Amino acid sequence: MVITIAFEALMCNLVQAQISKNPIMSPLSTEYIYPTRVIWEQGNITNSREFLKVKTGQATLVNDNMIELKNVGSQQASVILDFGKEINGSVELVTGMTTGGNKTQKVRLRFGESVSETNAEIGLHGATNDHAMRDFTIELPWLGKNKTGETGFRFLRIDLLGEDTSLLLREVRAAATYRDIPYVGSFKSSDERLNKIWEVGAYTVHVNMQDYLWDAIKRDRLVWVGDLHPEVATINTVFGYNDVVPKSLDLARETTPLPNWMCGISTYSMWWIIIHHDWYMHHADVAYLKEQQEYLAGLVRLITSKIGPDSKEFFDGTRFLDWPSSDNPEAIHAGLQAMALWSLEEASKLAKVIGDVETMKIADEGVMKLKKYIPAHANSKQAAALLGLTGLGDAQQMDSEVISVGGAKNFSTFYGYYMLQTMAKAENYQAAIDIIRNYWGAMLDLGATTFWEDFNMDWLPNAARIDELVPQGKIDIHASFGDYCYQGFRHSFSHGWASGPTAWMTEHILGIKVVEAGAKTILVRPNLGDLKFAEGTFPTPFGPLFVRHEKQQNKSVKTIIKAPKGVKIIR
Predict the structure, then answer these.
(1) CB 196 within 8 A of CB 451
(2) Domain boundaries, the chain
(3) What is the DSSP pairing of strand 521-524 with strand 568-570?
(4) Where is the Alpha-L-rhamnosidase six-hairpin glycosidase domain (predicted)?
């Protein structure tokens, strides 16, 4: 027995030493968030105002200020709570001493990104437990607490189950997980609507910066490489360097041996190259870039192998730009041609930095070949945007013929960023600003605190807000709309690819553009449109850059720039 105990103690010490030597540390912090509103309640509920009070998260032996849910016969007690903003996290329920013995109580929990989602049954209008559990039954302990579920949500419905039973709750709070990082970048202008859109775009990406950079916190909670591009643009604009980006890029590389396409989509492997170029321009990490050399070289050869003798792309895998363009194969072809060109141009620059002359030559030859064929835009704003950005089409022509036609109509949350970029290239800044107000602003008008997987201006007439019970005669925008894989309640309401206006407003309204790797040289050239002033900060490896632009009576713009030492400003 003595020998056994000594051996077990030795093993325990060895395990503890190993844990201390190689701890697995989470980059995430937890913040407890209490409900801001009781949206709805039914049945016998007393002291529901206590839901809104900040407490301790600790069960006590004193049953003071308790919330009671009581089922009389089969009449069920239920409540819907609003936590004020979309979060990623779980919920914690703290119980009291219910009379009648120390028995557990069953409750049904339904999380929602809209109020109406909390009332949906699984399978109804797309309601699902895919990727994250948002509708399930649990048992709560007597005089204790239970932390359960992890998903993206703002609203929670609690139903007490069983007949002739009661439940005492001391509190219900959300445990939000997030990266505790400062917002180094900022934006403020004479238009509060634009200011709010910038902030919501920043927050949409921030809440998706979990262990990895996800596309969404409810569905899919995955690293989709195409989604990463606008997300990384926002991270560079708001937070500066964060290891969630290289960690996610490396995951995509490590889980996609060539000749496979990342996420099964050829354009997503192309986005991987483009993101690496953007990341290098902001942070100039040559050592990290060199780690990509072997994969980059192989990927360049794979992309160029999909260019035919007629200079047309013939990519296999899933042929995809974004969901709203999925039914237009001619537009997808044009987009793939442009994406191949764009990615090879960036690959050539990266190969030059790391001294891979052969890969640079192969990429350059691919670029020359692709430029010999100009596909039609197919009346697609997505295709027109990519053609305009890559020079396969004239930006002003793409804007006037397709992108600006109908304003925000037929915009999309993902490729809307590239539509705005082409409008900027065409110097149509005012129209782009108006589209940001109308398209992304419309989601805010409906109660959004994060931007959605998709949005269509045709959904607006008679639509109810997402933060209220749907009034009679109004349309439930969450249940009634969506398409492809995001029909009804399966539609994600916190999708990082929708954050493009945040990066766009900093780049084009504040006029801040990195032109030398590591942000050593920055071009500042503002475009205020109808704004009276705009100011903000931008993260660089040397510290934040501050700019302020103010329109004078003679329409000229007075600019103040405060640049950190080590950053050269050109105007």
Answers:
(1) no
(2) 29-178, 186-453+492-516, 517-570
(3) parallel
(4) 184-373
